[in-house]
């Protein structure tokens, strides 16, 4: 299977990142002089993805202006006049994503692949539509050093995931996943969280996980941004 399409989640308010997000949407906040969103496009350029949909709501004109600078993907912006959250926003954009499995990545996701690895390509290779509805990319909580780690999930022996309701599981969700669009049949364009869809996939025994080979940082607050900024070598984040 070859993934050709990606959906980037960029509509949120970024409230925990205030005051930095008072005047700038979170996916465009600079890290090492580059917007967070730009690092995601760098990763996508190392895959077969050629079509990208980005949703927007908060300070949408800035998202629009930034997307106009991206010339090497077929770009679509899905504007939400009313914020629909991660689930509703995805359903609204579904007609731009096609009928094949696609990547869905949070617009503030920041990761650095371990040398010799390509997270998105490895996730693609791991995805099996015969048994999976969703494949999440996760990182062990023990490797969360710079920023706070939350134990969202535990792995079952066969690679399936079990959400840890007490948040003390072994792995944290990175905001990177592959989705089979068939599972969205019946959902309406209304405000709801994508977590609802993940929980249903888990209930059906079709939610699987893949451990990231590299570093992922949970950039949630201004302090997180500063911590990651101080850690990065000037050129390492551009690889």
Structure description:
The protein has 239 residues and is of the alpha/beta class. It has one domain: Spore Coat Polysaccharide Biosynthesis Protein SpsA, Chain A, CATH 3.90.550.10. The protein contains six helices and 13 strands. The protein has helices spanning 36-44, 60-67, 85-93, 119-126, 195-203, 222-231; strands at 5-9, 30-31, 34-35, 51-56, 74-79, 102-106, 110-113, 134-140, 153-155, 161-163, 171-179, 207-211, 214-217. Strands 5-4-1-6-11-8-12 form a seven-stranded mixed beta sheet, sandwiched between helices. It is globular and about 45 Å long.
Summarize the structure.
This protein has 239 residues and is of the alpha/beta class. The protein has six helices and 13 strands. The strands form four sheets. Strands 5-4-1-6-11-8-12 form a seven-stranded mixed β-sheet, with helices on both faces.
